[in-house]
Design brief:
The chain has 118 residues and is mainly beta. The chain contains no helices and 11 strands.
């Protein structure tokens, strides 16, 4: 399974970005799709994830500013980020938990850099 993330970049404080991540490969089902981030010198933390039934979980940093969504037909997860702040600067990683038959596994994308700076 491969994950291809895109949409990162440099944005001014208060700006918006939309991240996308497409999953491809042999999967019988994708259970959870999500985004994590890792700032300089920090651990990797959950930003948001979305389960197949549409249930959404947000990390503390995302509430009220970020929106996660998924397109099951395209095996794609999106993260709309609004009102970005300098502290949102990080490498953002997509993650999927998927099934091959009855086996559960997960995969990580390569990361996309988001820099919020004036």
């Amino acid at each position: 399974v491969q994950l291809q993330a895109s949409g990162g970049g440099l944005v001014q404080p208060g700006g918006s970005l939309r991240l996308s991540c497409v999953a491809s490969g042999s999967m019988s089902a994708i259970n959870v799709m999500g985004w994590y981030r890792q700032g300089p010198g920090k651990q990797r933390d959950l930003v948001a994830n979305i389960i197949g039934d549409g249930t959404v979980n947000y990390g503390d940093s995302a509430h009220g500013r970020f929106t996660i969504s998924r397109d099951n037909a395209r095996n794609t997860v999106y993260l709309q980020m609004n009102n970005l702040k300098p502290e949102d600067t990080a490498v953002y990683f997509c993650n999927v938990i998927f099934m091959i038959g009855i086996q559960v596994d997960d995969a990580w994308g390569q990361g996309t850099q988001v820099t919020v700076s004036s």
